[in-house]
Amino acid sequence: MFPISATGLPASLPGSRPPQQSPARFLPRLIPAAEGERVTTRDQRTLTLRSIEPADRAAIQRCFSRLSPQDIRRRFLHAMAELPDPMAQRLCRIDPAWETALVLEDLAVMPSEIRGVGRIYVDEVVNSAEFSVLVEHDWARRGLGALLMQRLVDDSRRRGLTEIWGYVLQENRPMLELCKELGFERRLLVDEPGTAQISLQL
Questions:
Q1: Stronger pLDDT, 146 or 26, i.e. the higher one
Q2: Which CATH superfamily is domain 2-201 in?
Q3: Is 16 exposed, middle or buried (0-12, 13-18, 19+ CB in 10 A)?
Q4: 12, 80, 113, 193: least buried by Cβ within 10 Å?
């Protein structure tokens, strides 16, 4: 089991797949469902941390349906009524040369549900990765966001990247505080009031 602490909430969403390029120097150690890592929250609830899979599409859409409008705006930086099927499929079918996506799966319910997602999207041109983190509201403040962020940072270092960064709304104080604790720096965006870019040099 992996005891965890701290907190975390949504950040931003990476863009679309990059053009064909040479593979990234270091690929992540993916965690298949069969080798999922047990994670125990401070209130003794258990989840499984593993890599995302194409079969997670329906669970990802159900997770989206449980998000509040505020959570959706914090995560995607704009309002969305639903997660379209093509977008859900794209989020679950990653190219490991350029992306890492980890999910926190709740096996205590049937069907199993996804309670959190963390991902990076690599830009080889600038040798950096954009991150996004989402934890379902009822599972927030249990250290899951911190766990996902730390794993994304570790994976970025394994890939030999020099920076991990993301966009966060200024109102998203829990995420900003979490990233500050992890050593991220914050820069306000002049062209996008209310949004900050946070980054960590690796």
A1: 146
A2: Gcn5-related N-acetyltransferase (GNAT) (3.40.630.30)
A3: exposed
A4: 193
